[in-house]
Protein backbone atom coordinates (compact mmCIF):
# COMPACT_ATOMS: atom_id res chain seq x y z
CA UNK A 1 0.00 0.00 0.00
CA UNK A 2 2.83 2.41 0.89
CA UNK A 3 4.50 1.75 -2.48
CA UNK A 4 1.22 2.39 -4.32
CA UNK A 5 0.71 5.68 -2.47
CA UNK A 6 4.27 6.80 -3.21
CA UNK A 7 3.89 5.90 -6.88
CA UNK A 8 0.70 7.93 -7.07
CA UNK A 9 2.41 10.86 -5.38
CA UNK A 10 5.30 10.61 -7.85
CA UNK A 11 2.87 10.96 -10.73
CA UNK A 12 1.37 14.06 -9.12
CA UNK A 13 4.79 15.57 -8.41
CA UNK A 14 5.79 15.03 -12.04
CA UNK A 15 2.73 16.93 -13.21
CA UNK A 16 3.52 19.82 -10.87
CA UNK A 17 7.23 20.02 -11.70
CA UNK A 18 8.36 22.47 -14.38
CA UNK A 19 11.08 21.54 -16.84
CA UNK A 20 14.31 22.24 -15.00
CA UNK A 21 17.99 21.55 -15.56
CA UNK A 22 19.59 18.47 -14.03
CA UNK A 23 18.99 18.30 -10.29
CA UNK A 24 21.86 17.45 -7.96
CA UNK A 25 22.16 16.59 -4.29
CA UNK A 26 25.53 17.65 -2.92
CA UNK A 27 27.37 15.50 -0.38
CA UNK A 28 30.33 17.01 1.43
CA UNK A 29 31.66 13.68 2.65
CA UNK A 30 33.31 10.67 0.97
CA UNK A 31 31.36 7.88 -0.75
CA UNK A 32 30.27 5.09 1.59
CA UNK A 33 29.71 7.29 4.63
CA UNK A 34 26.39 8.21 6.19
CA UNK A 35 25.92 11.54 4.39
CA UNK A 36 26.77 10.06 0.99
CA UNK A 37 24.49 7.07 1.56
CA UNK A 38 21.59 9.31 2.57
CA UNK A 39 22.14 11.49 -0.48
CA UNK A 40 21.96 8.43 -2.73
CA UNK A 41 18.87 7.03 -1.02
CA UNK A 42 16.95 10.24 -1.53
CA UNK A 43 18.39 10.94 -4.99
CA UNK A 44 16.69 7.71 -6.06
CA UNK A 45 13.41 8.79 -4.48
CA UNK A 46 13.60 12.25 -6.09
CA UNK A 47 14.35 10.68 -9.46
CA UNK A 48 11.16 8.64 -9.16
CA UNK A 49 9.07 11.57 -7.96
CA UNK A 50 10.33 14.18 -10.43
CA UNK A 51 10.61 11.92 -13.44
CA UNK A 52 14.14 13.00 -14.29
CA UNK A 53 17.63 12.01 -13.12
CA UNK A 54 18.73 13.43 -9.78
CA UNK A 55 22.44 12.90 -9.25
CA UNK A 56 24.71 12.93 -6.21
CA UNK A 57 27.63 15.33 -6.51
CA UNK A 58 30.49 14.77 -4.09
CA UNK A 59 32.20 17.98 -2.89
CA UNK A 60 34.47 16.87 -0.06
CA UNK A 61 36.76 19.07 2.00
CA UNK A 62 36.93 21.08 5.21
CA UNK A 63 34.45 18.82 7.03
CA UNK A 64 31.65 19.67 4.66
CA UNK A 65 32.30 23.39 4.33
CA UNK A 66 33.17 23.08 0.62
CA UNK A 67 29.78 21.53 -0.11
CA UNK A 68 27.99 24.23 1.90
CA UNK A 69 29.78 26.96 -0.06
CA UNK A 70 28.66 25.30 -3.30
CA UNK A 71 25.07 25.27 -2.09
CA UNK A 72 25.27 28.88 -0.94
CA UNK A 73 26.45 29.93 -4.42
CA UNK A 74 23.77 27.94 -6.28
CA UNK A 75 20.62 29.44 -7.77
CA UNK A 76 17.49 28.85 -5.64
CA UNK A 77 15.68 27.14 -8.51
CA UNK A 78 15.24 23.68 -7.00
CA UNK A 79 18.12 22.14 -8.93
CA UNK A 80 20.69 22.11 -6.12
CA UNK A 81 20.19 20.48 -2.71
CA UNK A 82 22.58 19.34 0.01
CA UNK A 83 22.51 16.61 2.64
CA UNK A 84 24.27 17.72 5.82
CA UNK A 85 24.72 16.58 9.42
CA UNK A 86 23.49 18.82 12.22
CA UNK A 87 27.03 19.81 13.27
CA UNK A 88 27.67 21.47 9.88
CA UNK A 89 24.59 23.61 10.29
CA UNK A 90 24.20 24.35 13.99
CA UNK A 91 27.75 24.04 15.37
CA UNK A 92 30.38 24.90 12.76
CA UNK A 93 29.65 28.66 12.57
CA UNK A 94 30.28 28.97 16.31
CA UNK A 95 33.64 27.21 16.17
CA UNK A 96 35.46 29.54 13.78
CA UNK A 97 36.29 33.23 13.87
CA UNK A 98 34.97 33.79 10.35
CA UNK A 99 32.39 31.29 9.11
CA UNK A 100 32.15 30.49 5.40
CA UNK A 101 28.37 30.73 5.59
CA UNK A 102 25.53 32.02 7.72
CA UNK A 103 23.30 29.11 8.71
CA UNK A 104 20.18 31.20 9.20
CA UNK A 105 20.60 33.44 6.15
CA UNK A 106 22.24 31.34 3.45
CA UNK A 107 20.16 28.14 3.43
CA UNK A 108 16.59 26.93 3.26
CA UNK A 109 15.65 24.00 5.48
CA UNK A 110 13.79 21.48 3.31
CA UNK A 111 13.37 18.21 5.21
CA UNK A 112 14.54 16.14 8.17
CA UNK A 113 16.14 12.93 6.85
CA UNK A 114 16.74 11.00 10.06
CA UNK A 115 18.01 11.30 13.60
CA UNK A 116 19.93 9.23 16.10
CA UNK A 117 20.44 9.21 19.88
CA UNK A 118 23.92 9.57 21.30
CA UNK A 119 25.19 7.32 24.07
CA UNK A 120 27.61 7.59 26.97
CA UNK A 121 29.47 4.32 27.44
CA UNK A 122 32.26 2.94 29.61
CA UNK A 123 34.49 -0.06 29.11
CA UNK A 124 33.49 -3.36 30.65
CA UNK A 125 36.30 -2.99 33.18
CA UNK A 126 35.10 0.39 34.44
CA UNK A 127 33.67 0.08 37.99
CA UNK A 128 30.72 2.39 37.23
CA UNK A 129 27.65 0.20 36.87
CA UNK A 130 25.27 3.02 35.99
CA UNK A 131 25.14 6.77 35.32
CA UNK A 132 24.87 7.68 39.00
CA UNK A 133 28.06 5.79 39.84
CA UNK A 134 29.83 7.23 36.81
CA UNK A 135 28.99 10.79 37.83
CA UNK A 136 30.10 10.10 41.40
CA UNK A 137 33.45 8.77 40.23
CA UNK A 138 33.89 11.65 37.78
CA UNK A 139 33.35 14.18 40.56
CA UNK A 140 35.92 12.47 42.77
CA UNK A 141 38.71 12.53 40.19
CA UNK A 142 39.22 14.42 36.96
CA UNK A 143 40.94 11.33 35.60
CA UNK A 144 37.57 9.59 35.67
CA UNK A 145 35.82 12.45 33.86
CA UNK A 146 37.58 12.35 30.50
CA UNK A 147 35.59 11.08 27.53
CA UNK A 148 36.55 10.26 23.98
CA UNK A 149 34.70 11.13 20.78
CA UNK A 150 35.30 10.75 17.06
CA UNK A 151 36.59 14.31 16.72
CA UNK A 152 36.76 17.85 18.10
CA UNK A 153 34.14 20.45 17.31
CA UNK A 154 31.38 17.89 16.76
CA UNK A 155 27.99 17.40 18.38
CA UNK A 156 29.53 14.47 20.28
CA UNK A 157 32.22 16.76 21.71
CA UNK A 158 29.79 19.37 22.99
CA UNK A 159 27.20 16.94 24.30
CA UNK A 160 29.89 15.87 26.76
CA UNK A 161 30.10 19.45 27.99
CA UNK A 162 26.31 19.60 28.32
CA UNK A 163 26.47 16.43 30.41
CA UNK A 164 29.08 18.11 32.58
CA UNK A 165 26.92 21.21 33.05
CA UNK A 166 23.86 19.13 33.87
CA UNK A 167 25.52 16.75 36.32
CA UNK A 168 28.29 18.87 37.81
CA UNK A 169 30.96 16.42 36.64
CA UNK A 170 34.17 18.05 35.28
CA UNK A 171 33.92 16.41 31.85
CA UNK A 172 37.12 16.66 29.81
CA UNK A 173 37.12 15.99 26.08
CA UNK A 174 39.63 13.70 24.35
CA UNK A 175 39.45 13.98 20.55
CA UNK A 176 40.19 10.91 18.44
CA UNK A 177 40.59 10.63 14.70
CA UNK A 178 37.46 8.62 14.12
CA UNK A 179 35.20 6.14 15.87
CA UNK A 180 37.54 3.15 15.73
CA UNK A 181 40.39 4.58 17.81
CA UNK A 182 37.97 5.92 20.43
CA UNK A 183 36.30 2.51 20.79
CA UNK A 184 39.66 0.76 20.99
CA UNK A 185 40.82 2.97 23.83
CA UNK A 186 37.64 2.80 25.91
CA UNK A 187 37.55 -0.98 25.58
CA UNK A 188 41.22 -1.13 26.54
CA UNK A 189 40.77 1.23 29.48
CA UNK A 190 42.95 4.04 28.11
CA UNK A 191 40.01 6.46 28.35
CA UNK A 192 37.21 6.03 30.94
CA UNK A 193 34.27 6.73 28.65
CA UNK A 194 33.17 7.58 25.12
CA UNK A 195 30.30 9.56 23.66
CA UNK A 196 29.26 8.16 20.30
CA UNK A 197 26.08 7.46 18.30
CA UNK A 198 24.03 4.80 20.07
CA UNK A 199 23.97 2.55 17.01
CA UNK A 200 27.77 2.57 16.91
CA UNK A 201 27.98 1.47 20.54
CA UNK A 202 25.40 -1.32 20.49
CA UNK A 203 27.49 -4.05 18.77
CA UNK A 204 30.31 -3.60 21.29
CA UNK A 205 27.83 -3.55 24.17
CA UNK A 206 26.21 -6.75 22.90
CA UNK A 207 29.66 -8.36 22.80
CA UNK A 208 30.18 -7.45 26.47
CA UNK A 209 33.01 -5.00 25.75
CA UNK A 210 31.10 -1.84 26.69
CA UNK A 211 28.39 -0.75 29.09
CA UNK A 212 26.07 1.99 27.81
CA UNK A 213 24.97 4.11 30.77
CA UNK A 214 22.45 6.42 29.06
CA UNK A 215 21.56 7.99 25.76
CA UNK A 216 20.39 11.41 24.67
CA UNK A 217 17.14 10.51 22.90
CA UNK A 218 13.73 11.73 23.95
CA UNK A 219 12.55 8.20 24.64
CA UNK A 220 14.05 4.74 24.94
CA UNK A 221 15.26 3.28 21.68
CA UNK A 222 13.42 0.31 20.19
CA UNK A 223 16.84 -1.10 19.31
CA UNK A 224 17.94 -0.96 22.97
CA UNK A 225 14.90 -0.64 25.27
CA UNK A 226 16.95 -1.51 28.35
CA UNK A 227 19.13 1.62 28.09
CA UNK A 228 17.70 4.67 29.91
CA UNK A 229 17.67 8.20 28.56
CA UNK A 230 19.42 11.06 30.34
CA UNK A 231 16.01 12.73 30.53
CA UNK A 232 14.41 9.94 32.53
CA UNK A 233 17.42 9.85 34.84
CA UNK A 234 16.83 13.49 35.77
CA UNK A 235 18.86 15.35 33.14
CA UNK A 236 16.40 16.78 30.59
CA UNK A 237 19.03 19.24 29.29
CA UNK A 238 20.81 16.27 27.70
CA UNK A 239 17.95 15.50 25.33
CA UNK A 240 19.97 16.21 22.19
CA UNK A 241 19.91 13.97 19.15
CA UNK A 242 22.14 14.01 16.14
CA UNK A 243 20.38 14.35 12.79
CA UNK A 244 20.73 14.86 9.06
CA UNK A 245 18.82 17.33 6.95
CA UNK A 246 18.16 18.27 3.36
CA UNK A 247 18.92 21.90 2.52
CA UNK A 248 18.55 24.27 -0.41
CA UNK A 249 19.91 27.73 -1.18
CA UNK A 250 18.25 30.68 0.53
CA UNK A 251 15.15 32.16 -1.06
CA UNK A 252 14.04 29.00 -2.83
CA UNK A 253 10.33 29.37 -3.70
CA UNK A 254 8.03 27.98 -1.04
CA UNK A 255 6.11 25.81 -3.50
CA UNK A 256 9.31 23.95 -4.46
CA UNK A 257 10.41 23.64 -0.82
CA UNK A 258 7.04 22.20 0.18
CA UNK A 259 6.97 19.82 -2.79
CA UNK A 260 10.45 18.50 -1.94
CA UNK A 261 9.52 18.16 1.73
CA UNK A 262 6.52 16.04 0.76
CA UNK A 263 8.68 13.84 -1.48
CA UNK A 264 10.98 13.11 1.47
CA UNK A 265 8.09 12.38 3.84
CA UNK A 266 6.28 10.13 1.36
CA UNK A 267 9.51 8.28 0.56
CA UNK A 268 10.35 7.84 4.26
CA UNK A 269 7.03 6.08 4.80
CA UNK A 270 7.85 3.32 2.31
CA UNK A 271 9.19 0.04 3.75
CA UNK A 272 12.21 0.07 1.42
CA UNK A 273 13.41 3.48 2.56
CA UNK A 274 12.63 2.72 6.20
CA UNK A 275 14.75 -0.41 6.00
CA UNK A 276 17.66 1.49 4.46
CA UNK A 277 17.44 4.20 7.13
CA UNK A 278 17.38 1.58 9.91
CA UNK A 279 20.56 0.12 8.42
CA UNK A 280 22.13 3.53 9.13
CA UNK A 281 20.73 3.47 12.69
CA UNK A 282 18.47 6.40 11.85
CA UNK A 283 14.97 7.10 13.09
CA UNK A 284 12.61 9.00 10.80
CA UNK A 285 10.97 12.22 11.90
CA UNK A 286 8.38 14.01 9.83
CA UNK A 287 8.73 17.79 9.98
CA UNK A 288 7.49 20.59 7.77
CA UNK A 289 10.05 23.07 6.43
CA UNK A 290 8.85 25.63 8.99
CA UNK A 291 9.18 23.13 11.85
CA UNK A 292 12.66 22.11 10.78
CA UNK A 293 13.74 25.74 10.41
CA UNK A 294 12.45 26.55 13.90
CA UNK A 295 14.20 23.60 15.56
CA UNK A 296 17.39 24.34 13.62
CA UNK A 297 17.34 27.95 14.80
CA UNK A 298 16.77 26.87 18.42
CA UNK A 299 19.71 24.45 18.26
CA UNK A 300 21.92 27.03 16.59
CA UNK A 301 21.19 29.56 19.32
CA UNK A 302 21.62 26.98 22.07
CA UNK A 303 25.05 25.84 20.92
CA UNK A 304 26.53 29.34 20.62
CA UNK A 305 27.00 30.02 24.36
CA UNK A 306 28.12 26.44 25.03
CA UNK A 307 30.86 26.60 22.40
CA UNK A 308 31.94 30.05 23.56
CA UNK A 309 32.14 28.96 27.21
CA UNK A 310 34.25 25.94 26.23
CA UNK A 311 36.93 28.13 24.65
CA UNK A 312 37.11 25.78 21.68
CA UNK A 313 38.15 27.18 18.32
CA UNK A 314 38.52 25.15 15.14
CA UNK A 315 40.91 27.86 13.91
CA UNK A 316 43.59 26.53 16.24
CA UNK A 317 43.09 22.84 15.47
Short description:
This protein has 317 residues and is of the alpha/beta class. 45% of the residues lie in helices and 19% in strands.
Describe, in plain words, how this protein is organized in 3D.
By secondary structure, the chain is of the alpha/beta class. The chain folds into 2 domains: 2-116 and 242-316, D-Maltodextrin-Binding Protein, domain 2; 118-238, D-Maltodextrin-Binding Protein, domain 2 (3-Layer(aba) Sandwich), CATH 3.40.190. 45% of the residues lie in helices and 19% in strands. It has 12 helices and 10 strands. The chain has helices at residues 2-16, 34-50, 65-73, 86-95, 103-106, 131-140, 155-167, 179-188, 198-206, 254-268, 271-279, 289-310; strands at 23-27, 54-58, 80-85, 107-116, 118-123, 146-149, 172-175, 193-197, 210-215, 242-249. The strands form 2 sheets. It has a 5-stranded mixed beta sheet. Strands 7-6-8-5-9 form a 5-stranded mixed beta sheet, sandwiched between helices. Strand 1, helix 2 and strand 2 form a beta-alpha-beta unit. The protein is globular, with a radius of gyration of 20 Å.
Q: Kindly estimate the percentage of residues that lie in beta strands according to DSSP.
A: 15-25%
Question: How would you classify the quaternary structure?
Answer: single chain
Strand order of the largest sheet: 2-1-3-10-4
CATH fold topology of the largest domain = D-Maltodextrin-Binding Protein, domain 2
Q: Could you tell me the number of beta strands?
A: 10
Q: Specify the biggest β-sheet.
A: 5 strands, mixed
Shape: globular
Q: Indicate the mean pLDDT.
A: 93
Round the Cα radius of gyration to an integer and report it. Answer: 20 Å
What is the number of domains?
2
- CATH architectural category of the largest domain: 3-Layer(aba) Sandwich
